[in-house]
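Entry type: protein chain
Record version: 2
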Amino acid sequence: MLLPLLVFLTGYTLSALTITIGYHRGLAHNAVTLHPVLHRFIVIFGKWITGLDPKGWSVMHRRHHAFSDTEKDPHSPANVGLSGILLEQLRSYESTLRGLARNDPEYTRYTEGLDFEVNWLNRHRLWWLPYLVHPICGAILALVVDPWIGLAWAMGILSHPLQGGVVNALGHSIGGRNFATADQSTNNLLAAVLIAGEGYQNNHHAWPDSAKFSYRPWEVDWGFGVCLLLEGVGLVTINYPGLIPESSQPASRSVG
């Protein structure tokens, strides 16, 4: 079962890194600048990899920061509970795409720096194609190579809705807090380890422009580690290294 596990981890990691480096740290926050080649790749193919539109995701995430854990937050357990996060983030994502399509200022005001259109799949109502292509690729692998490998690929590459749900739920309800932010963001170690450092939501909400989400010595952000590797080969430039000022006053409160 080692090969199916490796195939699953390949798809899972590709999906996670496309979001955390391409969409999140890159497009949404400009914590890293993507090389023009990588930027173009993310804008064109990010939708095919993750199933999610890069502009729609980035706008929704910016609105999450603007209204974190209030009634207007696109996905907060404070509003819908842990069990409602998956459906809520889907509804908010669809609402964001509709808002962008009709040039609604409620959404377009969060498009600064996102100088590209919504992906053509969404513009031509073909949003469902990645969700069809990946299972077909999995079925081909299952028939030609091994059933477990086919299943592993499909589950790994299409894992982001669950990844996002884990971060949005646990990262705003269960864990410690290094900083006394106005929202309910927490640092959830499990979510951080599983999802490229994304679980350190309290750190991130305290310093959203930081490319590095970890703060304490024991907090490991492997997504930032990949940023360092990509910077080494010239594919990204880290604008804010993530060294959170030591003068900041940490909070000691934990929740959950």
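Comment: Confidence is low (pLDDT under 50) at residues 246-250, 252-256.
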